[in-house]
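Hi all, a correction to my earlier message: I attached the wrong file for Glucosamine--fructose-6-phosphate aminotransferase (Isomerizing). Here's the right sequence:
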Amino acid sequence: MTSQMRAEIGEQPDALRRTIDALLPRTPDIGALARETRQVLFIARGSSDNAAVYGRYLVEAHAGRLATLAAPSIATAYRRRLDLSGVLAVAISQSGKTEEIVETLDWARDCGARTVAVTNGAGSPLAEAAEVALVTRAGAEIAVPATKTYTTQLAALSVLGLGLGAAVAEDDLRRVPDEVARMIALTEDSPALPEIVEDLAKVPGTVVSGRGIAFGTALELALKIKEACYLHAMGLSYADLLHGPIAVVDAQTPALLVAADSGPTLPGTVALARRVRGAGAHAFGVGGGPELAEACSAALPGPALPEWVAPLGLIVPGQIMVENLARRLGIDPDVPRGLNKVTQTD
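and the right structure:
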């Protein structure tokens, strides 16, 4: 029986196409805010926070603006006022109803920031609180693990990058929906999929690593493994992994390595795969082209997209792997224990 999570994974090409078509005309609105700001502050939790990591690398690497991740507790618990003049505050929430995120965006505005919301909730409190609301067109998402709401958030952040002056090609973004459809078919047919699933079903946990623009994808994949499969999964930049935690990688703790098919972090990811295998552990690749596939024990295909938009397709093989792994472990991926679709934090 097909899970709701798997059905929603399959809806991503259409959801992305609707979102991109709806949001690209909003780049002038973002550009108007860009002229009055110097840096970007991302406000998010959970999967949205992983999307924000992508946004941060995109803005810094391609739009030349300093970008940081907010600590919402500064606003909601410590209640400290900061000087946010010259800051563009971008709040990200799938539902737009997480009170902490709405409160933090209100705080940022009161501290002098200009404001943008990224949400799938049209008319939500978050959308109403922002000067510019980038409302994604994912449609209703029933399964608790975010799939299409996550990838459409990445699409919205790609549009944000374009509006902030990122030196990238808009046509790359327009190619994403078709490439995601191709990725779904390729992953389902990949002989590496059952191999990786069977191996992960036998171990208590894994390390998930990427770097740069792919780092958010590694964090999101680790989160999905934890919430849908109940396995320990440590999401790390490979630079941090090499500073000590690599000691946990062994025959019982394989590494999942995520990379775009090109870009400055690919050689380091390939080198890490070889080091992991040299230590007697399995290294499983997601993306990274033939170089990473050759260095890994097994690898899932990645999207044929430039690095700046690769994360929109790169997470998709991971989503399919997680859904298959959950069912292999006898877990319903649609309703992970202890989780709800909208999480409230204080």
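Sorry for the mix-up. The longest strand covers residues 87-93.
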